[in-house]
C-alpha cells in the first residue's frame, strides 16, 4: 500500500517542474530502512548530521522519521513493529502506507554505516530547496515592494544566513580531535616563547593578561560616557593594523580592521586617529590652528594612517544588525584581498546599544532585543572566526567602580562575552583631584580563559589617546604607542 497523500509516488506541488525526483524517494527510503533494519543502532550517527523531519521531501517520510525519533527519545528499540505501532498511535499509519510500506523501506536498507551518509544527503537536498524558497520569496517581495532595497536585502540575507548555519561543517567531534589542536597550540607557544596567539592590543600588560584578542571571541568594551571607550577602541585598531604602534609584539604581522561606527562619522574617527598617531591637540587639528611644525607632524601621521589597512563603515546615523555587520565583514574580506591588504583580523562595533535586532518581533522589549543582538554578535565572531570588539554603555551613572551588572539593557551581554573590559578614569568622576589627572585603568572584569585584573595606563586628553604609564619606559608618539 502506498501512502495516500504526500507519499513516495506523489508529484511535487511546487512551481518548479521536475522538483520531485526518484532520487529523493530512494535516498529517504534508504535512510529510514537502514534505521529500521538495524534497530536504531545507527540513529545517533544520522542525528549527528542535524537532520530534522522537515528535511524530508516526502510528507510520509517526514512523519515516519518523527515517529522514529520519538521512539528513540522514549528509549524504545526501533523496528518495523514498534514503528508501525507508534504511527498508529499518532493516527498516521495509513497515510504513511501502513505495514507494507514500512516493510518496503526496510527492504531498501544497505549497510549499517550508510545512515549518516544518507542523512547528510537528505540535509543537503533540503538546504538546496530552502535556498530556492528564499530566492522565490525575495522575488515576490521585490515585486510587492520595488523601492525597499534595504529591507529586501536584509530579508534575503536573513533567509540565507539561516540556511548557511545548517549547511556548515559537522560540529560533532570526538575528543581526540580537540586534544590534537591543544598540543598544536602548545608547540606553537614553545616555538615562539613570550609571544601571543591573538591580535595584539599594543599594550604589554594587557597582552600578558589576555594573550591577545582570539578568533571567535566577543569582547565587550564598556564605560560610562566620557571615559574614552571610542578612543581606546581606536587605539586597539591602530595597534592591530600598524605593528610600529605597539609597545610589544611588533614582530607579529598586521591585520585588516573593520570599524562599524553607528555614532561618529568617518571624518571624526580619522581625525582622532591622526591625533593619536601624531600626539597633536585634537581641538587644534579640527580648527586648523596649526603652525608649520605641527602641519609637518600631521602630514607624517597622515602618510602612516593612509597605509593602514583600516576600513570604516560609517552608517550615517542608521542602525545596523548583526547580519549587516556580517555582510560588511564579507565585503571587507574580498576588498582586502583585492587590494593586497592583510586578511581581516579584527572587527570593532561602536556601539552595541545603537544596533538593531536581526528581526523585529512584535511586543519584544528592549532587554530581549539587546539579548538577541548580543547572541548574534557572539555567533558572528564564531561563524567568521574573528575577534569582535563591541563598545557598550553602562546603565548606572553613579560614582562607583564599574561592575558587570552595570552593562546596560541586558544581562545577556555579560553571559555571551568572552572578555569584558571597562575603561575607567577617576578624573572624570573627581575632576578636582590633582592625583587622578591623566590616570586610567582598563579593568578586566570577565575573562573566560584567563585572569581578571587591572591594567594601568595614562590618558592624554589633548590627543584623546591611551598610552602606557611612564614607568613602562615607552615614549608615546615616537614610533610605538597604540
Walk me through this protein's architecture:
This protein is of the alpha/beta class and 482 residues long. It folds into 2 domains: 22-167, DNAb Helicase, Chain A; 189-472, P-loop containing nucleotide triphosphate hydrolases (Rossmann fold, 3-Layer(aba) Sandwich). It is 46% helix and 12% strand. The protein has helices spanning 22-37, 43-47, 59-73, 80-89, 98-107, 114-144, 149-167, 175-191, 204-210, 229-241, 266-278, 282-287, 292-306, 322-339, 366-384, 412-416, 426-429; strands at 218-223, 256-261, 310-314, 344-350, 388-393, 419-424, 439-447, 453-460, 465-467. The protein has a 9-stranded mixed β-sheet, with helices on both faces. A hairpin with a 4-residue loop joins strand 8 and strand 9. Helix 1 packs across helix 5 and helix 3 (59-73) crosses helix 4. The N and C termini lie far apart (74 Å). The model is unreliable at 4-18 and 473-482 (pLDDT under 50).
Amino acid at each position: 500500500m502506498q501512502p495516500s497523500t504526500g507519499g513516495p509516488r506523489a508529484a511535487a506541488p511546487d512551481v518548479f517542474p521536475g522538483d520531485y525526483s526518484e532520487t529523493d524517494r530512494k535516498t529517504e527510503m534508504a535512510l529510514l530502512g537502514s534505521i529500521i533494519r538495524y534497530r536504531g543502532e545507527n540513529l545517533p550517527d544520522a542525528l549527528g548530521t542535524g537532520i530534522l523531519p522537515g528535511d524530508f521531501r516526502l510528507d510520509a517520510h517526514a512523519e515516519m522519521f518523527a515517529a522514529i525519533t520519538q521512539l528513540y527519545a522514549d528509549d524504545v528499540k526501533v523496528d518495523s513493529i514498534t514503528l508501525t505501532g507508534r504511527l498508529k498511535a499518532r493516527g498516521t499509519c495509513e497515510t504513511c502506507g501502513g505495514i507494507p510500506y514500512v516493510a518496503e523501506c526496510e527492504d531498501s536498507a544497505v549497510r549499517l554505516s550508510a545512515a549518516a551518509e544518507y542523512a547528510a544527503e537528505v540535509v543537503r537536498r533540503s538546504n538546496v530547496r530552502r535556498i530556492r524558497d528564499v530566492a522565490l520569496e525575495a522575488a515576490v517581495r521585490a515585486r510587492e515592494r520595488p523601492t525597499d532595497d534595504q529591507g529586501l536585502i536584509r530579508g534575503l540575507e536573513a533567509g540565507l544566513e539561516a540556511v548557511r548555519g545548517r549547511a556548515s561543517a559537522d560540529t560533532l567531534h570526538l575528543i581526540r580531535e580537540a586534544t590534537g589542536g591543544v598540543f598544536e597550540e602548545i608547540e606553537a607557544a614553545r616555538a615562539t616563547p613570550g609571544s601571543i596567539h591573538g591580535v595584539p592590543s599594543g599594550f604589554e600588560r594587557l597582552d600578558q593578561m589576555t594573550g591577545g584578542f582570539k578568533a571567535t571571541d566577543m569582547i565587550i568594551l564598556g564605560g560610562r560616557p566620557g571615559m574614552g571607550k571610542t578612543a581606546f577602541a581606536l587605539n586597539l585598531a591602530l595597534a592591530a593594523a600598524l605593528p610600529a604602534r605597539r609597545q610589544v609584539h611588533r614582530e607579529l604581522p598586521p591585520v585588516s580592521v573593520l570599524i562599524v561606527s553607528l555614532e561618529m562619522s568617518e571624518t571624526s574617527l580619522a581625525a582622532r586617529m591622526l591625533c593619536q598617531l601624531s600626539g597633536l591637540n585634537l581641538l587644534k587639528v579640527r580648527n586648523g590652528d596649526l603652525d608649520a611644525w605641527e602641519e609637518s607632524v600631521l602630514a607624517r601621521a597622515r602618510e602612516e594612517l593612509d597605509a593602514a589597512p583600516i576600513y570604516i563603515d560609517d552608517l550615517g546615523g542608521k542602525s545596523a544588525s548583526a547580519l549587516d555587520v556580517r555582510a560588511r565583514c564579507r565585503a571587507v574580506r574580498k576588498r582586502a584581498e583585492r587590494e593586497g591588504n592583510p586578511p581581516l583580523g579584527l572587527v570593532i562595533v561602536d556601539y552595541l546599544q545603537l544596533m538593531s535586532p536581526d528581526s523585529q518581533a512584535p511586543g519584544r522589549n528592549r532587554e530581549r532585543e539587546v539579548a538577541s543582538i548580543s547572541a548574534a554578535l557572539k555567533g558572528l565572531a564564531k561563524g567568521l572566526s574573528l575577534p569582535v570588539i563591541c563598545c557598550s554603555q553602562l546603565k548606572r551613572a553613579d560614582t562607583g567602580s564599574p561592575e558587570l551588572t552595570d552593562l546596560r539593557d541586558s544581562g545577556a551581554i555579560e553571559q555571551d562575552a568572552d572578555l569584558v573590559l571597562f575603561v575607567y578614569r577617576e578624573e572624570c568622576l573627581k575632576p578636582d583631584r590633582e592625583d587622578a589627572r591623566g590616570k586610567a585603568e582598563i579593568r578586566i572584569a570577565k575573562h573566560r580563559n584567563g585572569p581578571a585584573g587591572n591594567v594601568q595606563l595614562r590618558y592624554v586628553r589633548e590627543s584623546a589617546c591611551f598610552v602606557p604609564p611612564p614607568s613602562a619606559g615607552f615614549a608615546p608618539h615616537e614610533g610605538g604607542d597604540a
